[in-house]
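Retry 2 of 3 after timeout on previous attempt. Resubmitting C-alpha cells to design endpoint.
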C-alpha cells in the first residue's frame, strides 16, 4: 500500500468521496483520482466520465479496504488528490 496517500490525507491535500471529488474536479482542484477496484459500476462510470472531461488521470489499483486503511476511515471508494506533487508521487 502506498504511504503517500496517508501523507496527502494528513496534509489535507485530498478530497474523500465521489461527490466531493467531482465538485473539486469541476473547480480544477484535483490532479489525480484514486478509485477503488470494488467501487460500484455507477461510481466508476461517474468518475471516469468526469475525469475524461477534465483530463485527470484515474488510478484503479487499490481496493476500498486499502484506500480506507490508508486514510484511517471506513468504506472509501474515491479519493481525489488536490496537490500536484502528491499526485505525481502516486502516478509512478
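Retry 2 succeeded. Sequence:
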Amino acid at each position: 500500500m502506498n504511504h503517500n496517500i496517508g501523507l496527502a490525507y494528513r496534509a489535507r491535500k485530498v478530497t474523500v468521496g465521489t461527490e466531493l471529488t467531482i465538485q473539486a474536479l469541476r473547480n480544477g482542484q484535483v490532479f489525480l483520482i484514486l478509485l477503488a477496484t470494488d467501487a460500484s459500476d455507477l461510481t466508476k462510470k461517474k468518475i471516469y466520465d468526469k475525469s475524461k472531461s477534465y483530463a485527470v488521470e484515474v488510478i484503479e489499483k487499490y481496493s476500498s479496504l486499502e484506500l480506507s486503511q490508508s486514510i484511517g476511515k471506513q468504506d472509501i471508494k474515491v479519493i481525489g488528490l488536490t496537490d500536484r506533487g502528491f499526485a505525481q508521487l502516486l502516478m509512478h
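Attempt log closed. The longest strand covers residues 57-62.
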